[in-house]
């Protein structure tokens, strides 16, 4: 029986997350979520179960409300890097979820790296 697209996405997301969990060593996780209309990212402390910093295109301050393009992803990546530095975080793991590492997800990651995050 064939798996649906959603089932395959969930399997990919869990595979990525489990690999990160095995090698986490207490580092934070930069988790990306991309929908048809928005892109968001969270810096998560899995040990304590708290979100340290977050950024999204739903924030009016970034000026991209409802946009899901490479330019918006770049702004979100720069914003999360700035907020992570303000929280005292320099290193983390990049959790792309079930999304492929290209396009908007790659643009977000590159902008976060340019902003000073190491992963």
TrEMBL record:
Listed under GO cellular component are: cytosolic large ribosomal subunit
This protein's source sits in the domain of life called Bacteria
Gene Ontology molecular function, alphabetical: 5S rRNA binding; structural constituent of ribosome
> What family does this belong to?
Belongs to the universal ribosomal protein uL18 family.
HAMAP family for the chain? Ribosomal_uL18_B
GO biological process per UniProt: translation
Q: Which UniProt keywords apply?
A: Ribonucleoprotein, Ribosomal protein, RNA-binding, rRNA-binding
What is the protein name given in its UniProt record? Large ribosomal subunit protein uL18
Subunit text: Part of the 50S ribosomal subunit; part of the 5S rRNA/L5/L18/L25 subcomplex. Contacts the 5S and 23S rRNAs.
- Biological function: This is one of the proteins that bind and probably mediate the attachment of the 5S RNA into the large ribosomal subunit, where it forms part of the central protuberance.
**What are the leading ranks of the lineage?**
Bacteria, Pseudomonadati, Pseudomonadota, Alphaproteobacteria, Rhodobacterales
RNA-binding as a keyword of this entry, yes or no, is yes
